[in-house]
Amino acid sequence: MNLAISLLVVVAIASIIGTVLQQNQPYTSYQIKFGPFWFDLFKSLELYDVYSALWFLAILAFLVVSIATCVGRNTPGIIRELRHFRENVQEKSLRAMKHQAAINSMQDATVTQALATRILHAQGFKTRPKAVEDHTVVAGMKGGANHWGYWLTHLGMIVIFLGGLMDSRLPIMIAEWQGNLKPETRDIPASEVPAVSQLSDSSFSYRGSVDIPEGSRANIIFQPVRDGYLVQHLPFEVEVKEFRVEHYSTGQPKSFESDIVIHDKTLDAPLETTISVNHPLIHNGVAIYQANFGDGGSELKLRLHSLSNRYASQDVDGKVFRDYTLTSSDQQYKLEVNDFRLFNINDMEDGSGKIEKKNVGPSVTFKLRDATGQALEYQNYMNPLSIKGQNYFISGVRTTPNEPFRYLHIPVDTKGSMERFMRFLSNIQNTELVKQSALQTTRNSMQQTTVADPAVEAQIVESMQRLTEQFATKGSEGIMAEIAAKFPQDKQESAAEAFMKVLNAALREVYKETLKQEGMTAEPTEADWLFFDDSLLAIDKLPAYGSPWLIHMDSFKQIEASGLQITRSPGKDVVYFGSLMLTIGVFLLFYVAHRRIWVWIKPLDNNQAEIVLAGSSNRNQPEFERYFQQLQGLFQQVMKQEVKHVDSPTNH
């Protein structure tokens, strides 16, 4: 019993873990969520697929065998207990019981026996009398359903465990052990998955998911297995005619549903219906749930703004989940478009400084992979975002999925575009323009100081040109690294201040030239210089940005995909039936008591009789104590004189 209870506690805890911890997700998701230490620990305990873990299945199998053995051993004794009224009990045994009383009857033994039988029948007892030479025993028994509670409780647990084993991945595990099945770990199209990683449409049970774009159909699902997956074929095709989603004013999804069509050879005509969350379709024992939604291959127009004069700007007409090769002057990149989101709910600061959730519009997520295979992930927003009163185009970058995005803020010009920033950045990288601007700045400064030395002028121009080039390629960190290498520590602060003054003067002159290229002839305004400061902050971060282009989404055509979870679980109904058995069994065990009453009748010489009344119950002794006292009072009242009707004092 102690072992069984301990194992049931383990099963209960495992079931709680399986409910709280989302099961059968890609291992990378768990690594991001828990970190390497906890990921490895949970993996070793098989908590990511706890219901198919070997130890979990072993416990279920052991409990099935153990409980079945227990029921088999105890059932003959219980049957004997239900059939045996124990009418051979002795007077001495009855008087030794806790619940017993001696009563004198005014009737003879025959009438007393009849009255006792009538009382017990009125109380719901089945009786069996036995008469011997000097006494008669009337044995009564009720509450045999309590033992049915024992059977239903234990058999219900067996049925539940068998249902769990029916829906487990035990057949898949056995096939893996035999070498007949091997999960696929590569990210390849389903048509290229080898036969050893595919399951036929006659599988006994399965659970998997598939994303079907609008207007498309599928006859497979993907079953996650550890760090891979299996392709499960379905006995029919599922077509998504239309997917609809409603949003709250904040952009959060409110509800979503799909119009689907089932193409099944066993049907005379295709089956059309609408499914939504918590309203699945059940077809031939297969349940189709509306689980989620995502992108179905939206069409995007992307503009690749060059961040270096070594690369050319270009346009790409792309689709989500497609890869594109980008060529440049000295190396090749691969653009992997991973996702498109129409709504993005972010925490934004309003004009009063209060943080509120706001929909910031569409975004595209992609990876840029260089020739060595190294990739950075980017998330770029289509519309400018307002931050503390200033508008910026936002681009996030990260090296691994388990780290947060680091954001690049590109200031927005008066036209609502990034055109001025890109022209300014290009001008900074234009050697001739930087040289002319540095020369103009130097001459203006030397005229004010009445110094006219061509050698000094050339040296200042060269310094300004070199600092600008370093800033454009390495940022301020590159300049500080050079200062640290060339100057002693006590001189570095003053050197950095001088360098930054020279650099700022050169960049301001380049910026003025940029404004002239836009047709501005007046002096820059305060807003223009604020744009200049924001641009320098953005340019300073470009060396760590890792991309030769800033990829901006100009337009899109959204194509949504309906995320369906498709399951075949014949063990589910078995589990429900077992749960019903368990519930009824527990109710019978707790609320129905098996009670026995004995009435030992001994005739006396004066044509009267002596009664010994005794009883026992297998549970709730305080309540039975009260009941026995009431029953004793009823016997005492009735045995004084014969009555035609015997009623129960209370309902029990």
UniProtKB/TrEMBL annotation:
Keyword Protein transport appears in the UniProt entry: no
Protein name: Cytochrome c biogenesis protein ResB
Domain ResB-like: 1-628
UniProt cross-references to InterPro entries, sorted A to Z: Cyt_c_bgen_Ccs1/CcsB/ResB, ResB-like_domain
Record's bilayer topology term: Multi-pass membrane protein
Localization: Membrane
Principal localisation: membrane
Transmembrane segments: 50-71, 148-166, 574-593
Record flagged with keyword Transmembrane: yes
Keywords for the protein's UniProt record, in alphabetical order: Cytochrome c-type biogenesis, Membrane, Transmembrane, Transmembrane helix
